[in-house]
Amino acid sequence: MYDVVILTLEEPPSGCGGDCGACGHDAPKPAVRTPVLHCADALKQAGARVETVTAYHDEAIDEVLARFDAPEEPDGLRRPDPETKSRLVVAVASDSQLRHVVRRLVRRYAPPPSKRPGDLPADRTLPDLPAVGVLPLDAGESGDLAARLGLPRQPAEVARAVLADRVRRLDLLRQDGGSVVIDGVLLGAADQRGLSVPFRGRIEVDDLVLSDGAEDVLACAVTVADGYARLDGIDLVTAPDPADGLVEVGIAVPALVKRRFGRDTHRVEVRRARGRAVSIAPRLAAEETLPFVEDGVTGELTRKRSWWIERQAWAVYS
Question: In the chain, fewer beta carbons within 10 Å around the N or the C end?
């Protein structure tokens, strides 16, 4: 029977950075949510051994992930153990929390380029990551990634999927900033009226140039799933497949429609491409930045960034 860890992520108390001992106060008590209790009960009733862990910092997450390590090999690289009887369920309040756990998995198991093992597929830079059970803390209808992938949402259903070992492998985006993407990125800003603020930048998908940087771009979507496929009713990408080994990219650009009679009008033109990698080099004035949202996390781009696909590198219980 399986040993199941249900991992919940919580913010540390203000000012301690997760190191409560250094602050001189008592560590916070774990915040056990109702869905976690229900999932744990369902797992125990089926005979599994269950532990609940609340992580306030990355070290606590890594301690849980270490349970999935294979025995050390002569090359010194960490690898996930394909024969492990341990299973991981992550209780998440947002896609960003799920992304954070996947990012810790990548940091743990991705080998440095200088030590690339010979058994890695040619289109991958990391081995198959251990599967993750996704337990939404909001078990109702939602627009999160678990809902869009059609994953079980009720605690008992999540428990059944984990114990049945129903694994669905999914594509992952890595990026040269050191992070990962499990859903998508939307680049661009809006003004106080909600209108898109144009930006300029060179946008390439493999060898195809979607924008050479000399024209305005209203928005750019870089997607592996479909959470960032639409903007203001416009399909930036169409029906992305989260397991086809391709990144989907779409940009919206303003286009002038000239009329023989009456005033010229403007429309939005969408350009799309699919490939293995994408790079975006924004053209910014001094102190300018390009805002973006990546798996629900906001940020600002100040230089060229690249993303590349890791075909079916991570997995969920479904």
Answer: N
In this prediction, residue 194 has a pLDDT band, given cuts at 50, 70 and 90, of confident
What is the Rg, in whole angstroms, of the alpha carbon atoms belonging to the chain? 22
Structure confidence at residue 230 (pLDDT)? 82
Place of tokens 């341990």: 86
Mean pLDDT of the chain, nearest integer: 90
CA dihedral 148, 149, 151, 153 (to 10 degrees): -20
Read off φ and ψ for residue 34, nearest 5 degrees. -55, -45
Beta strands in the chain (DSSP E): 3-9, 49-55, 86-92, 132-136, 167-175, 180-181, 184-187, 189-190, 196-197, 201-205, 208-212, 219-223, 230-231, 234-235, 247-257, 265-275, 277-282, 290-294, 297-301, 305-317
pTM over 0.85: yes
Residue with token string 């896609």:
95
